[in-house]
Amino acid sequence: MLAYIVRRLLATIPVMGVVAVFVFSLLYLTPGDPAVVIAGDFATAEDIARIRERLGLNEPFLVRFGTWLWAVLRGDLGVSIFTNLPVTTLIGQRVEPTVALTICTMLVSVALAVPLGVIAAWRAGTLIDRVVMAFAVLGFSVPVFVLAYVLIFVFSLELELLPVQGYTSIREGFWPFLERMILPSLALGITFMALIARITRASMLEVLSQDYIRTAQAKGLDTGQVLVGHALKNAAVPIITIIGIGVALVIGGVVVTETVFAIPGMGRLVVDAILRRDYPVIQGIILIFSAVYVLINLLVDISYTFLDPRIRY
Amino acid sequence: MLFSMLKASARVALVAGFAAGALVPSDGVAQSASNTLKFIPQADLRVLDPIWTTGYITRNHGYMVYDTLFAVDADFNIRPQMVDTWTVSDDKLTYTFTLRDGLKFHDGQLVRSVDCIASIQRWGKRDTFGQSAMQAVAAMEAVDDKTFKIVLKQPFPLLIEALAKPSSNVPFIMPERHAKTDAFEQIKEVIGSGPFKFVASEWVPGNKVVYVKNTDYVPRNEPPSWGAGGKVAKVDRIEWIYIPDSATAAAALSAGEVDWWEQPPGDLLPILERDPNIKVENIDPLGSIGVIRFNHLQPPFNNPKMRQALLHVVNQQDYLLAIAGSEKNGKTCYSFFTCGTPMASEAGSEVMKGPRSFEKAKELIKEAGYNGEKIVVLSATDQPIVHSQALLTTDLLRQLGLNVELAASDWGTLLNRRAVKEPVDKGGWSIFHTWWVGTDLANPAVNAPLRGNGAAGWFGWSTDAKLEELRNAWYAAPDADAQKKIAIEMQQRGWEVVPFIPTAQFILPTAFRTNITGVIVAPVTFMWNVEKK
Question: What value of ipTM does the predicted structure carry?
Answer without folding.
Answer: 0.81
